[in-house]
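Q: what sequence does this backbone want?
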């Protein structure tokens, strides 16, 4: 029938779930759930995102690898498109910059269920 977008305090009727707003889809046929759901249906659509490409030196290229110009990068690697296997594991590799340093690794993401992932740790390059 029609779609409503509710934001701010107007979505408070939906409790904490409505904290960021709500999309209400009104149908002519009515709810198809049991009466104890009060006609509400939680809907979490899949989203579409294409991660931008992070440029970094290609050290597999011998000319780049043997270049005498130092690599002073402070952000050494970023990949917005790592997908885990069915056990939730993933592996990736990258080249560090030339300076000896302690790098902070930050991993963020979203699970298939919409849960937020956050992990941070340090690695040393000596």
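A:
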């Amino acid at each position: 029938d029609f779609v409503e977008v509710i934001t701010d305090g107007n979505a408070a009727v939906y409790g904490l779930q409505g904290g960021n707003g709500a999309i209400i889809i009104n149908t002519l046929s009515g709810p198809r759930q049991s009466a104890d759901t009060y006609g509400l249906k939680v809907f979490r659509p899949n989203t579409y995102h294409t991660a931008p490409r992070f440029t970094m030196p290609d050290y597999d290229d011998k000319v780049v690898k043997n270049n005498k110009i130092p690599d002073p990068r402070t952000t050494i690697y970023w990949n917005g498109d790592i997908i885990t296997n069915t056990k939730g594991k993933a592996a990736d590799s990258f080249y560090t910059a030339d300076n000896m340093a302690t790098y902070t690794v930050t991993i963020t993401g979203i699970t298939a269920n919409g849960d937020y992932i956050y992990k941070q740790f340090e690695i040393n390059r000596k």
